[in-house]
Amino acid sequence: MSNMANALLNDWTTRDGIYFPRDGAPVSAYRQQWEQEAAFDHVRSAIATTGDGREDFATLAGKIGEVWQRFPSDQHIGTVLEIGCGYGRIPLYLSREKKLTCDRYFGVDIAETMLRHFLRYRAAFAIFPSAQYSLICGSADALPLPNDSVDLCLSSAVFLHMGKQFVQRTLHEIARVLKPGGAFIFDASFPNRYCPAFWPTRALNALSGRRPPNVLKYYTRAEIARRLETSGLTRKASGYRISAASWMLLPKNVWRLSVPGARQILRIAILRRASLIFSTFRTRGATLGVPFLERYQKDILKDAKNI
Ligand SMILES: C[S@@+](CC[C@H](N)C(=O)[O-])C[C@H]1O[C@@H](n2cnc3c(N)ncnc32)[C@H](O)[C@@H]1O
User: Fold this and answer.
1) Which residue's CA is the closest to the ligand 1 atom numbered 14?
2) Which has the higher per-residue pLDDT, 10 or 295?
């Protein structure tokens, strides 16, 4: 684990409302890639759909996954940590649509450009208005937070872009900072290695040698389970379920060309099962501090049987 993981936020420096590491480590190609994408179109960088410059709620909270849509309403949480928070799409949705409130919110993102947008939207949309805020510009594999200090950790569409060794270190870090019995919820994180919808793009990327540092990484279900176990996360947030978040058989797009019928074909139930993609992982175990998540988990387990 790097030294940064042991450095608490007090050792960091702030610039215009954002925390940065004091040591000013060199900017990696990976971070540069995220900065460039965010500068080009931050909505597109977050959800792969262009916002065309619109900054209304519907655009900014676009493509909200089922795991967030089913989040229970009117809850209050002590400390929330978000990994790869981007411009704040998930907290914007939870705060506004689910009336979630918290005492303290930590948002970690590697791209300063994203965090600058987050600061604007926080003011414009009153995201968690009563919370004490810390936006942290750094890599999630070294969290400047104390052990056992977070009640709820969130992440959406981040792990799938990270190198696998960084994902593993991040899972360790989440396990370290989570309170015993805390909860961790994330979606769109682990694209299924065997899902045929990804094969054309993967083959084209391999043939063309195109491999940006944040290119998607693919997983098997067994690999996800192994990583969650070895990180210590499953001991901290006891019990978990790896479940399907979406289904695909044909790719929706191959590079910039859309594939006709890709969505329609999934109306045939048997094909839907055949093309199972388990890109969501949800934990149970939130009995301490956030008991409402137990009910939430029961609902999700009930539904998982229907997949
Ligand atoms: C696809 S975007 C998703 C943003 C946001 N979670 C959402 O769902 O709207 C991925 C975000 O993760 C951030 N990110 C990627 N790797 C990271 C890392 N190692 N540590 C912290 N943030 C990271 C990127 O800068 C980007 O903002």
Assistant:
1) 84
2) 10
Question: Does ligand 1 lie within 6 Å of residue 189's CB atom?
Answer: no
Task: For 169-224, write each residue's pLDDT tens digit.
Answer: 999 999 999 998 788 888 888 888 877 778 888 888 888 887 889 998 988 878 88
E strand residue ranges, 27-177:
76-83, 101-109, 132-137, 150-156
Higher pLDDT, 126 or 216: 126
Single pTM value for the model: 0.88
* Nearest alpha carbon to residue 154 among 194, 130, 127: 127
pLDDT of the residue at 18: 97
CA of 285 to the centre of ligand 1 (A): 25
143 lines ligand 1 (CB under 6 A): no
Q: Which among 104, 135, 114 has a CA at the least distance from the CA of 16?
A: 135
Domain total for the chain? 1
What are the beta bridge partners of residue 242?
281
**Ligand 1 centroid from CA 140, angstroms:** 9
Tell me, using a 6 A CB cutoff, whether residue 114 lines ligand 1: yes
90 in contact with ligand 1, CB cutoff 6 A = yes
How far does the centroid of ligand 1 lie from the alpha carbon of residue 267, in Å? 32
User: 188 with 65: CB under 8 angstroms?
Assistant: yes
What residue type is assigned to position 210 of the chain?
R
Has residue 257 got a pLDDT over 50? yes
CATH at 263:
3.40.50.150
Cβ 102 under 6 angstroms from ligand 1: no
Q: Establish whether residue 140 lines the binding site of ligand 1, counting it when its CB lies within 6 angstroms of any ligand atom.
A: yes
The answer to whether 287 touches 294, Cβ cutoff 8 Å, is yes
Per-residue pLDDT reduced to its tens digit, 263-279 = 676 666 555 555 555 44
**Across 202-216, 254-268, 285-299, which has the greatest mean pLDDT?**
202-216
For ligand 1, whether the C-beta of 89 sits within 6 Å is yes
Domain of residue 273 covers: 3-304
CB of 156 closer than 6 angstroms to any ligand 1 atom: yes
